[in-house]
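Tutorial sheet, problem 5. The two components below are modelled jointly, 250 residues in total.
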Amino acid sequence: MTIKQVIVVRTDLEMGKGKIAGQVGHAAHLLTAAAYESAESTPPSNAWIWYDEWMKTLYRKVVLKADSEAELFRIFGDATKAGLPTIVVHDAGLTQLKSNTVTCVGIGPCPGELIDAITGNLKLL
Amino acid sequence: MTIKQVIVVRTDLEMGKGKIAGQVGHAAHLLTAAAYESAESTPPSNAWIWYDEWMKTLYRKVVLKADSEAELFRIFGDATKAGLPTIVVHDAGLTQLKSNTVTCVGIGPCPGELIDAITGNLKLL
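Model answer (structure tokens):
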């Protein structure tokens, strides 16, 4: 079973590469925090089980692109319904963007086939 | 006290923007994991105290650039000597880069003035 994390970034906002990297950093940070926050739950959460497994590998991260906010919310909805660890990143609006702009969605870590069913149509950023 | 996290990325590797974002994601993920791993230590670790404080704010991330591996190791050394949470990201070499290439250094979250003493000369990516 290949465990991976996928982060989908909006390309229609025309963010610079440093800005994109910061938003993807937020996604990776928040998904990690959520996994740790669920570590003590009973029964064990999938988020923690998958995180723990992922850390034994190369903790693969894949960055994909989507061209609209609507597509990001479609992905968020599908991933949530599938029971996958999922977060939406809102930008604070300090630089480049208006406050609360949705910039990316992070999913996982979780089994690759569960993510691929949702983001398999998207291209690498 | 402004708490922030700084991630310094090498520009001499000519990584694509998706590749850069993934490496910065690794840095944010690993620093978050390290903060949680130190959460139970006695006395409380600075890593956890700063992380906890940072999460009450906008968990600011700043992505900077450096033009060589040597500069990255200079930053890593200085940050480590200063007692700041610090990690080096090595790429697994699955795409674009040779295995084990050092791609970025992550520092913090910690008080901004402690980071600025080390990375204040660097420009935004």
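Marking note: The mean pLDDT of chain A is 94. Full credit if you identified this.
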